[in-house]
Amino acid sequence: MVGVSKGDKSEILELFLKIGLDDRTAKNTIANNKVTANLTAVIHEAAVTDGCERRIGNLLYTVATKYPTNALVHRPTLLLYIVSSKIKTPAQLEAAFSFFASTGSENFEVDEFEEACGVGVEVSSEDIELTVNEVFEENKNTILELRYRTNVGDLFAHVRKRLPWADPKIVKQLIDARMYELLGERTAADIEKLSKKKEKKEKKEKPEKDEDKKFANDAPVQLPEEDLFPISNFPPPEENYKVHTEIPFSDGSVLICCNTKEVLDKHLEVTGGNVLTRFPPEPNGYLHIGHAKAMFVDFGLAKERGGYCYLRYDDTNPEAEKKEYIDHIEEIVQWMGWEPFKITYTSDYFQELYELAVELIRRGHAYVDHQTPEEIKEYREKKMNSPWRDRPIAESLKLFEDMRNGRIEEGKATLRMKQDMQNDNFNMYDLIAYRIKFTPHPHAGDKWCIYPSYDYAHCIVDSIENITHSLCTLEFETRRASYFWLLHALGLYQPYVWEYSRLNVSNTVMSKRKLNFLVTNKYVDGWDDPCLMTLAGLRRRGVTSTSINAFVQGIGISRSDSLIRLDRLEYHIREELNKTAPRTMVVLNPLKVVITNMESGTIMHLDAKRWPDAQADDASAFYKVIFE
Which residues of the chain have a pLDDT value below 50? Predict the structure, then answer.
């Protein structure tokens, strides 16, 4: 953990002004506790509490806001380079960030660092001027055509690509001078701006993602590629050394969660660097169309990266789970066109989860609690610690063993994680790790009478199975803190986590709880009733898995919540059936037509298309019509 000192605001403001920050920036910085703590620490580490040049102060501010937190041990070294003016440009600083982000907390070679950051490299004004002239010569026609509407940033980028360590101020001065030399004074046409009316028109013509303003002629909006499949930009497994999250605590400290080099190397050795994902449904009902999106994300990433995807049953609630649901899920996943790498159950790891819970108690991060659900709710609302929170470790170990052996009644004890009851994130309110349930398990049988919670088991099983990318819907975003807190507390490998929006379809029921109510009370004809949006119901209706996958791919995978209109799905169903469904022709009221120039008894077999878009080289797409 890294301590964060709040300090006195007036003193901190004075400190920030001394390093050259303007008054507005300094005051805005103080409004952000995290940046304030970082910048204060950086100033003290750099030993410039009495002030420094504004150029150096700006670099220190950048360090405070962008420095990779997985390499904090090397920050004092970088600050020495900045204060001594060995690193003096933003480009050099960005290169240093990249170097330390990949190095982490490991030792590094000074020569490699200095080479990567351009330390000691002096670029003369003559060299910069020569390069600027070359860039202008190469882009002369475009500059003359656009004049002062030319994107100067592009010119700057061309120069920086050739001279990465050139002084940006000199580069800008030379570019401005060269522009004036080539174009002369600005004319009225140069400074004329696009009218607001034209700008609004362009914005209006831009394709919109909003389902309410969607497709003309019943065709879906075409989303940008990055919105359709953003997971293609996810980092590879070998780059999973960066900080996953920072967890602020009520005492002012911050927990920084990331993989150490040793943990990541061990993970890569086991996986061979392959991408591993998982589709983890709870077997408490039939899968609906929302699960089709989850399958597309989890199996799709593995397929796109040449990796593997587990089908893992998240079976931690024996009261709601049935063998019927387990069998259905496996069958419907295959019907959707996905092939699991392995089929596993969270219950397969019950012994390991139990042993890790014992270890969590030994490390002082868990305790046995006797509060009732009502008391737990009340204490959480008041942000109060449980009376049993600070009981001796040995006592919690003994009681947890009693829970395991069935010596404590159901509802009389739980194992809770010792997190932070005063945290701003309610998912850090000492979540329950284990509870007592004298209920047989549909997969594990009657071996256990204590069962792990989702919050405890989910992240640990992700780590045990060496999942590289753990993908969840957005409602789990606030659980990031507890997810990484637990893995950090146990010293386990931490997967890369990303959340996406749930699939919400209009005019239908998609909640498993509500679907279960409709089925149980016989309002519908089972889970595969055609009026339900379950995958089994859609299949019974005649919908194909390929049209469902096309629908999911068409709406994209983003972090923005939206309500998808039902006719968007129906569009993809029609498109699929239009290409595959055979047609049958019938003449209801035939009229006799006599052809006078055709010999009597002649029979002709004509080819007719089974569907409008049938390809001529596909024999199965045609059928014979007898003409006589």
Answer: 1-7, 193-198, 200-201, 204-228
Q: Are 433 and 567 within one domain?
A: no
Q: 156-175 b/e with 16+ CB inside 10 Å = b?
A: bebbeeebbbbbeeebeebb
In degrees, rounded to 5, the angle at the alpha carbon of residue 35 between the alpha carbons of residues 2 and 484 is 45
Residue 132's CB: how many other CB atoms inside 10 A? 25
Active site residues: 282, 502, 512
Tell me: the pLDDT tens digits for 578-602? 877 777 778 899 898 888 888 878 8
Last residue of a domain, one of 482, 504, 526: 504
Q: What is the pLDDT of residue 191?
A: 64
Residue 528 inside a domain? The answer is yes
Are 250 and 392 contained in the same domain?
Answer: yes
Boundaries of domain holding 149: 125-191
pTM over 0.90: no
Are the C-beta atoms of residues 253 and 4 closer than 8 Å to each other? yes
Exposure pattern of 389-406 as b/e (b: 16+ CB <10 Å)? eeeeeeebbebbeebbee
Q: Which amino acid is at 27?
A: K
Q: What is the pLDDT of residues 283-337, one digit of tens each?
A: 999 999 999 999 999 999 999 899 999 999 999 999 999 999 999 999 999 999 9
On whether both 496 and 524 belong to a single domain, the answer is no
Inside any domain, residue 626: no
Q: Which of 410, 492, 425 is nearest to 458 (CA)?
A: 492
Q: Rounded distance, CA 234 to CA 301, Å?
A: 9
Name the helix (H) or strand (E) containing 278: strand 276-279
